[in-house]
Give the backbone structure.
Amino acid sequence: MTPVSILALILAAQTVTGGLKSANPVTPEVKARQQALRSAAANIDKAGPDLLPLIESSLQDSDAHVRFLAIGALTQLNMKIATGGGQQRPSPSVDPRGRASLQTVLLQTLNDADPRLRGGAAKALAFVAPPPNATVRPALVAAYQREREAGVRAAILSEFGTYSPNSTDVQQIIVSAITDVSPQVRRTAAMVVAKSRPPAALQGVVAELRSGSPETRAEFLLALSSYGAAAKPHLDVLETLLRSETRPPQRLLIQRAIATIQGSR
Amino acid sequence: MRLIDFTRRTGRAFGAAHKVGPAFFSLALLLLVHVCGCITSAGAGIPANAFYSGAGIPVQGLNAYCYAYSSGGGFVEAYVEAYDPRGTFLASAYGAGQYGAEANATYNLTVTGQYRCEADYWDDDVYMGHSAFGFSFYLMVYDVTLKTFIPENNYPDPTSGTETAEGDDRGFARYGSSRTTHFMAIYDPHAAASTSLFADGPYKDAAMSADYEVATSLDGNSRLTDAARNDWTAGPPLKIRWAIGDGGSSMYCTTSHDSAAHMQLQCHASESTPLHPWVGVLFDITYDFNIDFWVDWQDPYSGTVDYLVQGGHDGFPNYEIYVGNQAVFLYDHRWDGQNIWSLGPPEEYSGFFIPGSLQ
């Protein structure tokens, strides 16, 4: 019997007895559930069809660390599927993509108290739900709007680059993200802009470059270049940057952006 | 030849490898000098539950220190010392063991308890623990490896239609060859008196790059021939040029911690290819990785450590991060159709968010 099977039995027994909502977070049962999830994550390559039901039920567990271990196992699984699995590819039977019940659980996890779970759920949703998805997109938009952790905002935002970037609500998010207080979020926003080029974001991109912030410059140069001819009225911003920049790599980046825009029709 | 594989030193942390003998005690003495310096500067001795490099804990007016080593060849060593509150040496104990066993050093502090230092060799990691009166703490050391590599056997040079660059020709693997390597061993956050949590390293390296003539260097499967690889005469045919990297001058890592349960490792690289100095201004491997670790000290024997990987990196080449032997981050440039033009700033991928738990 695999660790996953053992945990499934424990979960089933606890559901019957109502013991899942135990107030004690470190009971032997909780430890058993945690250990089984760790074992499942360590043996992703050998996992069978009982893995995804385990992850789904564990994401709804009353114990915060069980939930964390579950999102960790799912993230590990998705990463191995996306990259070919490293030395061993997971079985197709554990591919979570398109699994509706998992999507439902992950949507709930976007509200978890632990930001690590919220960010992990956002990334997992983007992997599991095929874009465009009419349910997931507005949920991610809402999650972004209420999110206070910059890392989680960046995690959600990066998915909008390929996830319905032209929808009105997503474009509004992108425009607001360009002026986010966190440079991490602004950098990610600029990369999304470079892919989707929302007209409403152009002025924000120019304003960030005009501010001279060195920590976001490379991303915003790319974002401005992506507008092509529409960015020509703002070439003076780049020329001003070039005059004040002495570092060869940075000058080359600016020169490349100027050349790209000048060569656009 | 193409790079120094620092990861082969995995698990043999804590300075020079040494067998049981005088060299070991010399190193222990050096460490003690360091620890005692910390005590002096603190003025009032070690505060309760504070841990220093090598670990110290006040027990009934005594200060005890634990040092644990993995000395290579499967040997583990533990060494415990005790001092009175004025810093006067009282006694020491020493133990050693082999792979698969424990090394214990026990010093009886009083009639009511003992101080036990323990070293276990376990899966490339050294686990150090010390306990007193049944109140146990474990100090752990994590080997962290960050590598970038070109999975292809060779990759067409973007600046020439007639040349191809040598790749690493492999999938994800902790010990494989690479373009850049970051390797380090880090303490857990209990080493709170130190501003750095590095137990070994960080080491960094950028590999040799080589360009080949396409017409003469590839076999029928478009793979580099042995003749081409073994050609060390510059210019066509076969291998045209090669260059060793600058040793990772743009690569660095730092650690920080805000409690005994949380620490962060940050690593950066913007490493240019050594073969194309001018083009290389933009053609560099760039990454910024932030890895948070949370240690659950409620149950140290289970080794519960959570992590979260965030940051950004270029779209090329492949990226991999291992803690011990566990892959915590994998990226394959072929997954998203990225190519060598994705080198250089900005970082194509940011906002990734990889939570997990060490096994």
In short: Chain A touches chain B through 50 residues (CB under 8 Å). Confidence is low (pLDDT under 50) at residues 1-24 of chain A. Chain A has 14 helices and no strands. Residues 1-87 of chain A form one domain.
